């Protein structure tokens, strides 16, 4: 009886598609109500005026207008302030 011995292991066989995260509409672009502005994992960018955040942290436009990005400071749970980008629609 013949059989194969010492076949070894393969490490790089698992492959999953990318999640297509990131900014979808950039500053100065016109958007309609309900359009996706940012897809993100966790709250890396904040939703400002004219936007709302869904359960998976995706930021949508709440009204028609022009996208604007603002940098502002936000306090962490520990009390440390960190710089965050706020997405608004005006």
Task: Describe the structure using short key phrases.
four-stranded mixed β-sheet, about 40% strand, four-stranded antiparallel β-sheet, about 90 residues
Describe this structure in words.
This protein has 90 residues and is mostly beta strands. It has a single domain, classed as OB fold (Dihydrolipoamide Acetyltransferase, E2P) (Beta Barrel), CATH 2.40.50. Helix content is 0%, strand content 41%. It has no helices and 8 strands. The strands form 2 sheets. It has a 4-stranded antiparallel sheet, with no helix packed on it. Strands 2-7-8-4 form a 4-stranded mixed sheet, with no helix packed on it. It is elongated and about 75 Å long.
The ordered H/E elements are EEEEEEEE
Radius of gyration: 21 Å
Quickly give the CATH architecture: Beta Barrel
Catalogue the unreliable spans: none
Strand order of the largest sheet: 1-3-6-5
Determine the strand fraction and express it as a percent band: 35-45%
Summarize the structure.
The protein has 90 residues and is mainly β. It has strands at residues 22-23, 30-31, 36-39, 45-47, 51-53, 59-61, 65-75, 81-89. The protein is built from no helices and eight strands.
Secondary-structure blueprint:
Blueprint: E1 22-23, E2 30-31, E3 36-39, E4 45-47, E5 51-53, E6 59-61, E7 65-75, E8 81-89
Parallel strand pairs: 4-8
Antiparallel strand pairs: 1-3, 2-7, 3-6, 5-6, 7-8
């Amino acid at each position: 009886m013949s059989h194969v011995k010492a076949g070894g292991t393969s490490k790089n066989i698992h492959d999953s598609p990318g999640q297509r995260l990131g900014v979808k509409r950039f500053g100065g672009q016109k958007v309609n109500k309900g359009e996706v502005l940012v897809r993100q994992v966790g709250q890396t960018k904040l939703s400002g005026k004219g936007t709302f955040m869904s359960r998976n942290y995706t930021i949508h436009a709440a009204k028609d207008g022009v996208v604007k990005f603002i940098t502002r400071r936000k306090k962490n749970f520990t009390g440390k302030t960190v710089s965050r980008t706020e997405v608004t629609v005006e």
